Amino acid sequence: MTRSHQIAVYYFPGYHADPRVNEWHGEGWTEWELLKRAEPRFPGHQQPKVPAWGYQDESQPAVAEQQINAAADHGIDAFIYDWYWYGNAPFLNGALDHGYLHARNNARPRFALMWANHDWVNIHPAVRGTSPPVLVPGRQSRAHFEAATDYVVRHYLRHPSYWRVEGGAYFSFYELMRLVRGLGGIEETRAALDSFRAKARAAGAGELHLNAVVWGIQILPGESHHEDPKLMLAKLGFESVTSYVWIHHTPMTTFPTVPYPDYARAAAEDWERLAGAYGLPYFPNVTVGWDPSPRTVQSDSYDNLGYPFTSILVGNTPEQFGRALERARAFLDRGLTNPPILTINAWNEWTEGSYLEPDAIHGMGYLEAIKRVFGAEAVVVEAARRVEHVSRPVP
Hints:
By secondary structure, this protein is of the alpha/beta class. It has helices at 19-25, 32-37, 61-73, 94-99, 142-157, 176-183, 186-202, 229-236, 260-277, 318-333, 365-388, and strands at 6-11, 78-86, 89-91, 110-115, 120-121, 134-136, 164-165, 168-173, 208-213, 240-242, 257-259, 282-283, 285-287, 312-314, 341-345, 348-349, 354-355. 35% of the residues lie in helices and 17% in strands.
């Protein structure tokens, strides 16, 4: 059974211990520490955000099972994990490798990867007036690309819960220009992507659905703009494009706050333009919120200095989030993108103020908004999915 809409949510795996993070910040450090220390930076600023489930270790299968059930019960089809590969080895992979993949219920929402191939900079926290140091560069050589894609094919693509879009295993890239520059140019990148496709087929993983994150406003230090993205995407052979977050497209014109209702309307106005800009299906994005202030030194003055010292969305209640979802559903129902997929930022970007997980103020409100707008058909499909996968093996 298929359903007319699919909902995929980005998952930021910053809430479990990682060996390299231990070296940089101390044994067992996670971004929960930034969240716990967050303070209001101006009158009415709602910080710190407090997770209703507590400061969990997402690499534990029991935690993953709780997340999976909550997501599936509210109509989410897939987690898109932010996936990192630095120094010829994975990074922050414990949430997926040890949590989700060992969860007993991982046949419910699927999973996929977005290669977050940006520089990893030390904004944990960022110091006002300084350029954050690059801890590991995101640019990849061909040898590192081959090692990374070997790992992806071996560990993920053949898993029965890997999310497939029109038959192809969905795999997304965050920074196309960084990928192209690291691999040496358009022709070299096309050859590398063709190699990725070939090794997936040879391993029995079938075809790939390659997706590119597109955006027009620089956010993280070191991000670069796409140069003639429509032509580049055609030459590289991508199947679709999407967005990671509203902030990549829609300017924030007031400081320190921007009203969420106004910003959501402005972001929705971009969807039709983006749907026609790249010559590929565009999957629109809805963003839950935006507040990266926990990633700054809390004693520093909070001024408009660039990420993470940015404007903050306010008024992003579950009700307003639901209205943004209603606009997205109406857009998908117009048939301007096929298949009708919506991405959401994010499941758990707590230190950027964008999360679906329940908090101490709104509880399950954001998830309930998804179920209200998209969930009527999800209940039927979820029942069918349970029957379909009841005897499915987990590698």
